[in-house]
């Protein structure tokens, strides 16, 4: 469970079985809906992770939480990147590119932490590890929320411009 099987051999090669069917969110409306929906799952999963961290959970439990978060974040990243590749989405590239980069770094860091060998596999995580993981969890939520806000803003502005062009 978890570890290298879930994350791949390289920290940047996390894969999501749920995303194997292809890209989601080829337009802003689809992307906005997907991000809003996935945001709920990410927040709930991270809240569970933080509860386990505060309770002093063992590494196996923490890895289970990390392995539940990774595919959802991966789907968000892939869907956003797919939308960035669509013609006419230069604003998303300009405003969302740095957020996607930050979110990707967070996902890679979580993969590295999930694969850390120095921590006991089944024993309790040390305080330093739990602190780094909690900080990373907050970063993931912050970056995901920022991405949702950015896409909502771009989507609402494009709808306003579209409404104005109909007049």
Automatic annotation (TrEMBL):
Upper taxonomic lineage: Eukaryota, Fungi, Dikarya, Ascomycota, Pezizomycotina
Annotated source species: Tuber magnatum
ARF GTPase-activating protein GIT1 C-terminal domain residues: 36-151
Record-level GO cellular component terms: actomyosin contractile ring; cell cortex of growing cell tip
Protein name in UniProt: ARF GTPase-activating protein GIT1 C-terminal domain-containing protein
Classification via Pfam families: GIT1_C
Region entry Disordered, spans: 1-21
PANTHER family documented for this protein: PROTEIN SPA2-RELATED, SPA2 PROTEIN
InterPro entries found in the cross-reference section: GIT1_C, Spa2/Sph1
GO molecular function: MAP-kinase scaffold activity
